[in-house]
Specification:
Structural class: mainly beta
Radius of gyration: 17 Å
Number of helices: 0
Strand content: over 45%
Shape: globular
Number of strands: 22
Distance between the termini: 18 Å
Order of helices and strands: EEEEEEEEEEEEEEEEEEEEEE
Oligomer: single chain
Length: about 240
């Protein structure tokens, strides 16, 4: 296992953007924290009112955005202009290349969102965009699938044998997770609350990576929200 406490993450405070990096990103470079398998980036971003990321390019990366608070305005060169908010999941396969911008739509409140990059298992695919709302489908005291490799499955899909789940748990609830694919590992990120995973205590914004296992159990100490990301360990 590998444990990343919240206060050990890289941080970049640009005034308009406060970003915490679980893995090396931009000016934060830690050779021991380059990736967890194909999970390359996990950024925990807060964007000031009316500010945002100007148009910039990506290629050959699966990019997932999970809004936690506020309204995030997305525009790209595929013709998409959308607003995503808490309860939405957004995905882009950058493939051969895509340019996009992301702005805080509101002038009076912050936007908080997770941006996640997963290295794809296919290069130079046709770029695509998708977003869904899981607001009415979220399971209480259980895990809601938000991403898989299968376009016909629940949630969004990506070009990789990865499965993501969001979990909401009341205090003292216990659940377990069984990995979908041999050779995969799981990175658990605590969004709110305090949990234990196989007796390892985790607090808000802590991350824990587990591999070479078939399943694990977790227990919510307090009311908790977690993100479970199962990804291939080999690049």
């Amino acid at each position: 296992t590998i444990l990343h406490r919240a206060d050990t993450r890289g941080q970049a405070d640009h005034g308009w953007l406060n970003s915490y990096h679980s893995f090396s990103f931009a000016n934060y470079h830690n050779p021991e924290r380059m990736n967890f398998g194909v999970l390359r980036v996990l950024n925990d971003d807060t964007v000031a009112p009316g500010r945002g990321f100007g148009t910039h390019p990506h290629s050959n990366m699966e990019i997932i955005s999970i809004p936690l608070e506020g309204d995030l305005q997305h525009m790209d060169d595929m013709g998409n202009s959308t607003i995503i908010k808490q309860g939405d999941i957004q995905v882009m396969s950058a493939g051969t290349g895509v340019s996009h911008s992301e702005y805080n739509k509101n002038k009076d409140e912050l936007v908080k969102f997770l941006q996640i990059w997963v290295i794809p298992n296919k290069k130079n695919v046709t770029p695509r965009y998708d977003q869904i709302s899981i607001q009415n489908n979220e399971i209480n005291n259980g895990l809601t699938q938000i991403l898989s490799p299968n376009p016909d499955d629940e949630g969004v899909w990506i070009h990789q044998d990865a499965w993501f789940y969001l979990g909401n748990f009341e205090a003292e609830k216990t659940d377990s997770y069984t990995l979908k694919k041999k050779g995969n590992g799981v990175y658990i990120f605590v969004l709110e609350g305090d949990i234990t995973v196989n007796d390892q205590k985790l607090n808000k914004r802590d991350g824990l990576g587990i591999w070479e296992t078939d399943s694990f159990t977790f227990n919510a100490i307090t009311k908790s929200k977690i993100l479970v990301m199962e990804v291939p360990m080999s690049l």
